[in-house]
C-alpha cells in the first residue's frame, strides 16, 4: 500500500498543506494511507527537537513525504543543532534525496506579476536539478573555534565526490531527454577545485552516456546574470547545493509565480521522495489565510507523478490549478483577494469538473 | 609622487583601458606617474605566469592599480595554479584589498535597457561591500584527492575569522553613514557556521560602534529573490566573497547598465586600491571596438577619488560620462552604434567642456 506523510511544519506550512489534504481527499486514491507528523519549529515546541525519531522513521517508511515549510523568528534563539532548518537537513540526509527538482515556470496568466519585462519572462520553463545532500551544507570539518590569539574562526567544508556528482548528473541528463535536451552545468571552477571536479565529472558522464544531450558549462556568477538577462536560454540547470539554493530562488522569484512553484527531492529509485513548495514559511502572513496554496498543491502533483504512481491524478491536479488560474482565481500574492481556503475551493471546483 | 599602474589584461580589457588612459592624459594631473604591466592571459603568453613578480611589486609600490579584465577560452587548458584568474586572486591577496565596493546603479538614461520593469529598477543606487581576500576562494585545505576506493573528491574551505569580518564590516558601516545609513548583512547562518560567526560579529560591531546605522540580516537565497523583487529596498549590502560574487553580478546585470559599472577594492588606509570594471573580459567581442569603456572610465574615477586624492577630477570624469550619456552617446550594449573609441571621444568632449 502507498503511504503519504504530511509534514506541515511552520508559518504558512500548515495552511497550505491543509489545502493539499483537501485535494487528496477529493481525489480519493484507492489504497493510499495518509498520516501527519510535527516538523520543524512545531516539533521543537512539542518535542524539543525539529525532527523526532518517530517522524524520521515514518518518513523513511512512507512512499512520499509532502512538507509545508520550516523556520521562523520564534526559533531564532534555539541552539544550532536543533534549529528548525537542522530538522530539514537531517530529513534530506536520512531520505538521501540527492536530486532536487525545482521548476521555474512562468504561468501565462501570471506573467504580468513578474518584475521582469513580459518579453523576457513569458513562457519561461526551466528546471533546476540541485544537488541536495552534499556540498558545503554538510561537509566536515565545520564549526566555530577559538584561535590561540583569542579570535574566533567560523568554517565549513565544500566537498563533492565523483559519485555524488555523477548520480545527480544522471538525473539532470535523464530529465533533459524528456525536455528540450539541454543541460547547463554551473559551478565556479575558476576559483574552486570542487568546481573543477564537478565540471570534469559532468563532462565525462556526458561523453560516456548522454552524448545526445547538449551540455554547456557556466560560472555561477555569470549564471546569476544570465537568469536576469535572458532566462529562456536555459532548459535544465545542473548545480550544487549552495549555488542551487540561490540561483533557483532567484529564477523562481523572477517568474512572478513564487507562490505557485513546487519542488521534488528524489533519491534512489523506489525510495520515498520529499515534496515541498519553493516558498518559505512566510511568518509575517502566517495564520491569516493569506497564503497561496498552489505551490503545495503542485508539490502534491509532483508526488503523485514521481512517487505515488498516479500520473493521471497528477495531470488532473495540475490542470485544475491552471484552470482555476485561467478563470481568474487569485490569492493576494497574485494581486487577488482570495483566501488560502478560497483558492483551494476554486481548484477543487475545477478538479470535480 | 602618486603613481597609477595599468593592468589591461585580456579580452576587451586593453580596449577599455586605452580609453581610460586617454581620459587620464586629458586630465593631465600634475605629478602622476603612469605605467603599465602585462596581466592575466596576456602575461601567461609573454612570461608563462599570470602575474610576474615585477608586476606584483609594481602594484604594491603604486598608489592605485587600474585593471581591465582577465581570462578567456584561450587559457582554458593552462594548469590551475597559473590560470589567469589565479593571477587576479594573487594580486588581490598581495594587495590585501579586503573590501570590494561594487555599486549597482541604474543610470536614468539607460533604465529602459534593464530587463526589469522601469518601476522596479529606476533610480536604483545600491552598494555592495564584498569581502574579497577570504572565504572559500582562499580557504585551506583545498584540492582534489583520490580516495581509497578510487573515487575522487574535490574540496574547498569556507573560513572567516572575527577580524576578517570586522574590518570589512567597518567599511560597510562607514560607507553607509555617507549614504542612506542602512546596512543589510547577508549570509546563510541557517546552514553554515561561518555564517553564524559572520552574523554575530557584524551584530557586535554594530552595537559597539555604529548604532546610528540601521542593520538588518538576510539569508543569501532570500537576498537573491529580493534583488529581483524589490532591489530599491537596499542601501548597502555587506557580504562574503562568494555570495558577493553572485549577488553583485545579479544586481549589476539587473540595472541594464553592466557595461557602465565600476568597482573598487580597498585595503588598509594608505595602501594602494585596485580598480576594475564589474564586467568581464568578453572574449566574444574582444578586439572589435565594440566594448563599452564607461565601466573602466568610472573605475578610474573611483581611483581618483579613493586612492589618488583627486576628488574634483573624479567628479569631472563622472559628470562627463553622465553628460555624454544624456547627449545620447551609446555603445552597442546600450543599444547604440558608437565604437569603444567613439564613446571615449564623446566623454572626452564633455570633459573638455
Ligand atoms: C531552509 C533552508 C535550510 C533551505 C536550504 O537552504 O536548502 C531552503 O532555503 C531551501 O532552499 O529549501
Ligand atoms: C574572475 C573571477 C575570479 C572573479 C571572482 O570570482 O571574484 C570575478 O568573477 C569577479 O567577481 O571579480
UniProtKB/TrEMBL annotation, chains A, B:
Annotated Gene Ontology cellular components are: cytosol
Query: SUPFAM superfamilies this protein is in?
Result: Isocitrate/Isopropylmalate dehydrogenase-like (SSF53659)
Tell me which InterPro entries the record gives: IsoCit/isopropylmalate_DH_CS (IPR019818), IsoPropMal-DH-like_dom (IPR024084), Isopropylmalate_DH (IPR004429)
Give the residues the record marks as binding NAD(+): 72-85, 280-292
| Compartment(s) of residence | Cytoplasm
Q: What enzyme category does the UniProt record give? A: oxidoreductase
Report if keyword Magnesium is assigned.
Answer: yes
Q: Where does Mg(2+) bind?
A: 221, 245, 249
Single GO MF descriptor:
3-isopropylmalate dehydrogenase activity
Q: Name one GO biological process term.
A: L-leucine biosynthetic process
Q: Which UniProt keywords apply?
A: Amino-acid biosynthesis, Branched-chain amino acid biosynthesis, Cytoplasm, Leucine biosynthesis, Magnesium, Manganese, Metal-binding, NAD, Oxidoreductase
Note describing how the cofactor binds: Binds 1 Mg(2+) or Mn(2+) ion per subunit.
Biological pathway? Amino-acid biosynthesis; L-leucine biosynthesis; L-leucine from 3-methyl-2-oxobutanoate: step 3/4
Ranges in a coiled coil:
none
What does the protein in this record do? Answer: Catalyzes the oxidation of 3-carboxy-2-hydroxy-4-methylpentanoate (3-isopropylmalate) to 3-carboxy-4-methyl-2-oxopentanoate. The product decarboxylates to 4-methyl-2 oxopentanoate.
Q: Which family does it belong to?
A: Belongs to the isocitrate and isopropylmalate dehydrogenases family. LeuB type 1 subfamily.
Task: Describe, as the record does, how this protein assembles with itself and its partners.
Answer: Homodimer.
Name the record gives this protein: 3-isopropylmalate dehydrogenase
User: Upper taxonomic classification of the species?
Assistant: Bacteria, Pseudomonadati, Pseudomonadota, Alphaproteobacteria, Sphingomonadales
Amino acid at each position: 500500500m502507498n503511504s503519504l506523510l504530511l509534514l506541515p511544519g511552520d508559518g504558512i506550512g500548515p495552511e497550505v498543506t491543509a489545502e493539499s489534504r483537501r485535494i487528496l481527499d477529493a481525489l480519493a486514491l484507492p489504497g493510499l494511507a495518509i498520516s501527519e507528523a510535527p516538523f520543524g519549529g512545531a516539533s521543537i515546541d512539542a518535542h524539543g527537537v525539529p525532527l523526532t525519531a518517530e517522524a524520521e522513521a515514518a518518513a523513511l517508511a512512507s512512499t512520499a513525504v509532502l512538507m509545508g515549510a520550516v523556520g521562523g523568528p520564534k526559533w531564532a534563539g534555539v541552539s544550532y543543532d536543533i534549529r528548525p532548518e537542522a530538522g530539514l537537513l537531517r530529513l534530506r540526509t536520512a531520505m538521501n534525496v540527492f536530486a532536487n527538482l525545482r521548476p521555474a515556470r512562468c504561468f501565462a496568466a501570471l506573467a504580468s506579476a513578474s518584475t521582469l519585462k513580459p518579453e523576457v519572462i513569458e513562457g519561461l520553463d526551466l528546471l533546476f536539478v540541485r544537488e541536495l545532500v552534499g556540498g558545503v551544507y554538510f561537509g566536515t570539518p565545520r564549526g566555530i573555534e577559538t584561535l590561540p590569539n583569542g579570535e574566533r574562526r567560523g568554517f565549513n567544508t565544500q566537498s563533492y565526490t565523483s559519485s555524488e556528482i555523477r548520480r545527480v548528473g544522471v538525473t539532470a541528463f535523464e530529465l533533459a531527454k524528456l525536455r528540450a535536451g539541454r543541460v547547463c552545468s554551473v559551478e565556479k571552477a575558476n576559483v574552486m577545485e570542487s568546481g573543477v571536479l564537478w565540471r570534469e565529472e559532468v563532462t565525462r558522464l556526458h561523453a560516456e552516456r548522454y552524448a545526445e544531450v547538449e551540455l554547456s558549462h557556466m560560472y555561477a556568477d555569470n549564471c546569476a546574470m544570465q537568469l536576469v538577462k535572458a532566462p529562456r536560454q536555459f532548459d535544465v540547470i545542473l548545480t550544487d547545493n549552495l549555488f542551487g539554493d540561490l540561483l533557483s530562488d532567484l529564477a523562481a522569484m523572477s517568474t512572478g509565480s513564487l507562490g505557485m512553484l513546487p519542488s521534488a527531492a528524489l533519491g534512489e529509485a523506489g525510495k520515498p521522495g520529499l515534496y515541498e513548495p519553493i516558498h518559505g514559511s512566510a511568518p509575517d502572513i502566517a495564520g491569516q489565510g493569506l497564503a497561496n496554496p498552489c505551490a503545495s498543491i503542485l508539490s502534491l502533483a509532483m508526488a503523485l507523478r514521481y512517487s505515488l504512481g498516479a500520473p493521471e491524478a497528477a495531470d488532473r491536479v495540475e490542470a485544475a490549478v491552471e484552470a482555476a488560474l485561467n478563470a481568474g482565481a487569485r490569492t493576494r500574492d497574485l494581486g487577488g483577494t482570495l483566501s488560502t481556503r478560497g483558492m483551494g475551493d476554486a481548484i477543487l471546483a475545477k478538479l470535480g469538473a
